[in-house]
Request: fold
Amino acid sequence: MSTFTSTLPDEILKQLGEQAKKLSLPKNKIIERALAIYLDQLKKAEYIRSYRQAAADTDILTLAEEGMEDYFEQLDK
Reply:
């Protein structure tokens, strides 16, 4: 595991300390978990953005519809 040093606003650091005390967890574990959740949300937002972009692309829509036709034909056989 690597070491990372950063600065935080005093109010956030105060809240972090209070939560760490309430949860009996080290501050770095709370930061680690919060960052993991945030990065996962960014990844999900990127997927959503790409799907919305694809939904507006008529070429991709046509390709998907043709693929579904082929799929249904295979199911019929």
